[in-house]
Specification:
The protein is an alpha/beta fold. The chain is built from 11 helices and 13 strands. The strands form 2 sheets. It has a 7-stranded mixed beta sheet with strand order 8-9-7-10-13-12-11. β1, α1 (12-22) and β2 (27-33) form a beta-alpha-beta unit. The protein starts with a strand and ends in a 15-residue tail after the last helix.
């Protein structure tokens, strides 16, 4: 049995970590930290935990709290962990960071896209990119895991086998992605008000979205060469979910059989990736509340392109669920422990 601390426990991703760990057989929650709600009972903030969690939110006395836990989840804004993490803290507890602070290996690219100075670049090299299905062996040995973002998890997993097997031309890869409103976090923003979002859809961060370099870096590792993509996210009026539609030109010899074989090779035995049957497309409603990623594809012979499709819950596999999956791998638990929930329909 291990104990976990959660910093940023009152955001949507932090709340989801609390929910998942509450049903985990190998973990007990040691403490919850929230600067916004310090001193308040957690169940008064999220009443779904009434009579389940009876803990008050603490402040940011992180150094004092580390001795009480084995792992720390940081569901915090960009720049928070990098500004306070020191190497000696990693000797006390393992960290799983849900921000982008340690995802990108080139600190200059991070600072260019996120517009903040990285305060602990000396720890970037040690951090392991926590895409479980790709980096499992490195995650097992990690003290610091950079948990991938929701857009990036879905985008990378959907294209990864075809990039890895060089069945598509990476220079032609275009990614369009849809996100539910919870992906923007719990903070009060006019653009996320009901009347601003309902009955509407919009592209945002066009050609500038900061998940772009993360997608490019990870797909470049898979391709063993530079990959540059067009990535365009869209906000749609639903609570949860990511849906990506990716298109790319096929390499000579690539066909339905070789594409299906590539997906089966890399993901056929994965617990949390479900490969769709022919002519079925992923839908966000069929992954809601779960740690699954559903992936499908269609070859368009008319244009000699392949359409790749992926769907996941942005708060589970796109954030908290993947973080718990990473924790399971790091501590040698059953990788699916605490994550076996069947998607909620409706």
């Amino acid at each position: 049995m291990i104990r976990a601390g959660i910093i940023g426990a009152t955001g949507y991703a932090g709340n989801e970590i609390v929910r998942l760990l509450s049903g985990h057989r190998e973990v007990r929650i040691g403490w919850l930290v929230s600067r916004s709600f310090e001193g308040q009972n957690y169940a008064d903030i999220y009443r779904n935990f009434f009579d389940i969690i009876d803990m008050d939110c603490l402040g940011n006395e992180i150094d004092e709290l580390l001795d009480r836990v084995d792992v720390v989840f940081t569901a915090t804004p960009q720049g928070f962990l990098s500004s306070m993490l020191k190497r000696e803290m990693l000797d006390k507890a393992k960290f799983i960071d849900l921000s982008a602070d340690y995802r990108i290996k080139d600190v200059n690219i991070y600072e260019e896209w996120y517009k903040i100075e990285h305060k602990s670049p000396e720890l970037i090299e040690e951090a392991v990119y926590g895409l479980c299905e790709v980096n499992r062996e490195d995650i097992k040995k990690a003290r610091l895991v950079a948990n991938p973002g929701c857009f990036t998890t879905c985008s990378i997993l959907t294209a990864y086998p075809l990039i890895k097997e060089q069945l598509i031309d990476p220079d032609t890869l275009i990614i369009n992605a849809l996100s539910g409103v919870s992906g923007a976090g719990r903070g009060a923003k006019v653009a996320n008000l009901f009347c601003e979002v309902n009955e509407s859809a919009k592209a945002y961060g066009v050609a500038t979205h900061r998940h772009t370099p993360e997608i490019e870096e990870q797909l470049s590792y898979a391709f063993n060469g530079k990959v540059t993509v067009n990535f365009t996210p869209h906000l749609i009026p639903m609570n949860r979910g990511i849906l990506v539609t990716e298109t790319a030109s096929l390499k000579d010899g690539a066909d339905e059989g070789s594409i299906r074989s590539a997906y089966e090779k890399y993901f056929g035995k994965e617990a949390f990736i479900r490969l769709m049957k022919e002519d079925l497309s992923p839908e966000t409603r069929f992954v809601e509340g779960s740690n699954y990623t559903d992936i499908g594809f269609k070859v368009d012979r008319r244009t000699n392109r392949v359409i790749m499709m992926g769907a996941l819950d942005n708060l589970v596999k796109g954030a908290a669920g993947q973080a718990v999956q990473n924790m399971n791998i790091m501590f040698g638990f059953d990788e699916a422990e605490g994550l076996r929930a069947v998607p909620m329909v409706p």
